[in-house]
Design brief:
By secondary structure, the protein is α+β, with helices and mostly antiparallel strands. The protein folds into two domains: 183 residues, Jelly Rolls, CATH 2.60.120; 65 residues, Orthogonal Bundle (Arc Repressor Mutant, subunit A). 33% of the residues lie in helices and 24% in strands. A seven-stranded mixed beta sheet has the order 8-9-1-10-3-6-11. The protein has a four-stranded antiparallel beta sheet with strand order 2-7-4-5, with no helix packed on it. α7 packs across α8. The radius of gyration is 21 Å and the shape is elongated.
Length: 287
């Protein structure tokens, strides 16, 4: 079976729009806490200049973000961003623009941070496909890092997109907020595409799509979800035995092929039940 663009398939099922909410321009020390997002929102941050530490209070993990880094949090987890100094931050001042973008600044003069913060809004009820099958966070580095020589760490198209977003988040050009949100919507697809290309993609759907042996199965399910696929057929596409296929699929995705196919069908049916012509007796893949 030829390769199927599963990412385009899933984004045709799901309406995802981007919104930039805040541009943060801080001097250290600074700290911003973000609560758990509502179920149909995926927060993201783009470090335009400077550096930031992102912490997950639940898992007690932390990661440094540098200029050009993009982080998506598909599960909408509560998180904290700070300068890493451990010093108490001062107050911030917010200025709300007429089109919806807020500028947040503080009066401190330490190491500078310039960051865009926003959300991806997922059309209901499709948040299940995002939260169940994407990892807790996805980080893409768009500018070369001094300690990294891998050219893949600096995809030019993403760096250019960030440059456009920086430009339209400043000044008073007509239509800038609409353009900014349109660029933000494109960001979601570009970040996922880059993450698939990682040598070790994040767990879940991204790892499954990047798995050279399992990719034929996911392509088949997205290309023809109405077909009453069974596990032997899917395994044969991947040149595996049924047992080997089930084990690799579960280990890579964290869920079974049957669960993924059912969720794909549910998303299609939610958009338009007429698009999915399933025989009710044969609608679930056989074991």
């Amino acid at each position: 079976m030829s390769h199927v663009d599963w990412l385009s398939h899933i984004l045709q099922m799901i309406t995802i729009t981007g919104r930039v909410d805040v541009r943060c321009i801080y001097g250290a020390p600074w700290r911003v806490a973000w609560p758990q997002s509502v179920i149909h929102e995926v927060p993201y941050h783009i470090v335009l200049n400077g550096r930031a530490i992102i912490e997950d209070p639940e898992t007690h993990t932390a990661r440094e973000l540098v200029a050009g880094d993009i982080v998506l949090l598909p599960h909408g987890s509560a998180h904290v961003l700070h300068d890493g100094s451990g010093h108490a931050p001062g107050p911030t001042c917010e200025r709300h623009g007429s089109a919806g973008l807020t500028l947040s600044e503080n009066g401190d003069h330490g190491e500078r941070l310039d960051m865009l913060c926003g959300r991806f809004l997922i059309g209901r009820p499709h948040e299940r496909l995002i939260r169940n099958y994407l990892p807790n966070n996805v980080v893409i580095r768009t500018f070369p890092h001094p300690d990294e020589s891998d050219a893949k760490s600096a995809p030019r198209h993403l760096a250019s997109l960030i440059g456009l977003m920086r430009e339209d988040s400043t000044g008073d050009k007509v239509g800038r907020y609409t353009i900014l949100n349109a660029l933000s919507s494109a960001l979601f697809t570009l970040v996922l595409r880059e993450a698939i290309g990682f040598d070790s993609p994040p767990a879940g759907l991204l790892a499954l799509a990047g798995h050279p042996r399992l990719a034929p199965a996911i392509s088949a399910m997205f290309a023809d979800p109405a077909r009453p696929w069974n596990l032997p057929e899917l395994a044969a596409l991947c040149s595996m035995s049924r047992a080997t296929f089930m084990r690799h699929f579960q280990d890579t995705l964290g869920r079974s092929a049957i669960e993924l196919l059912s969720d794909i069908r549910m998303s299609l049916a939610a958009n338009d039940p007429r698009r999915l012509h399933l025989n009710l007796q044969d609608g679930s893949p056989a074991a």
